[in-house]
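Try it yourself: sequence plus NAP, in.
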Amino acid sequence: MINTLAYAATSPTAAFTPFSFVRRDPTPSDVQIEILFCGVCHSDLHTARGEWGGTVFPVVPGHEIVGRVSAVGARAGKFKVGDLVGVGCMVDSCQHCASCAEGLEQYCEEGMVGTYNSPDRHTGGVTYGGYSNIIVVDEKFVLRVSEKLDPAAAAPLLCAGITTWSPLRHWRVGPGHRVGVVGLGGLGHMAIKLAHALGAHVVLFTTSPDKRDDALKLGADEVVISKDAEAMRARTNSLDFILNTVAAPHNLDAFLSLLKRDGVMTLVGAPATPHPSPAVFNLIMKRRSLAGSLIGGIAETQEMLDFCAEHGIVSEIEMIPIQKIDEAYERMLKSDVKYRFVIDMQSLHA
Ligand code: NAP
Ligand code: ZN
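Structure, out:
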């Protein structure tokens, strides 16, 4: 058993506090990882505050993990001690259903095991995530992270990166495409960088006028303030694809009407309460589609990490000690994150 230090929320309204627990000893196919950095996803907040229901307290969030391998199981041949690795949103799946066979473990028919707040197939308890100093994971769910990338800024690729990469690839976004990104937070800023690197023309829709210059620097070709009705109207029927990352309910029709005929808007933002729309006519008159997408499979996560290493793409981060996690959540709720908080796990020992 491995004594592990962490920060946990003990109720939907409690501040985070230090928490210790034990991780399993590595099985023959496991890798033990010393966690260096963990990104802070809005999903951590939704879960810690019980907004989606089903949170088991105490909860240790964190699914944007980068660290170094500190031990490997007898049959784990993928990694050696000292390797820089990542763990994202999943740590297990059934490995034999149709989705797993296609490398889409996030859609496992038996239910994937989330990195936190999921039933743990090994211990029978609940999984604890990356706001901790050590994690033990089956090597199939561990990713290689290039030494070329800054490890702290690479951490958000493990969720924000893959959650935007997977739909961009699935809907074949590339040169000649006009792509809208809605919301400039953790997911949104990765969506801009990745869609730009894939060769698309990127239009960022934001509620925060002060983010305009940043969006252009990140790779957006145009920035539209979504509260500006005239600017929105000017983009009617102009986009092939929209990736909507907004974490709160809002009027989807305002964005659906910007799609060309046969255009697709994919929702990755996951607010706790439903959106008030869409209107059916906004879909049928132009054969538009409204879709959703969940993180990404392990193979495509590795593909994304390798693409980012090749193109020098990482997240824009603000590093925090773990003791500032509650403050970071409050700032995230005010859309005041530029553009991902990352916890320096050394601070656990402070
Ligand atoms: P984030 O950093 O807080 O960014 C969300 C952005 O949405 C904000 O920065 C803001 O951008 C915009 N926004 C927030 N409230 C808004 C409102 N009331 N109206 C309009 N825009 C608003 O969050 P994130 O970490 O990127 O996560 C975004 C969402 O994706 C969360 O719901 C999260 O749980 C979900 N998520 C889903 C998956 C998946 O697999 N589908 C994976 C990870 C996360 P502007 O200031 O530019 O308007
Ligand atoms: Zn996430």
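One thing you can check immediately is this: Residues 2-158+296-349 form a domain with the Quinone Oxidoreductase; Chain A, domain 1 fold (CATH 3.90.180.10).
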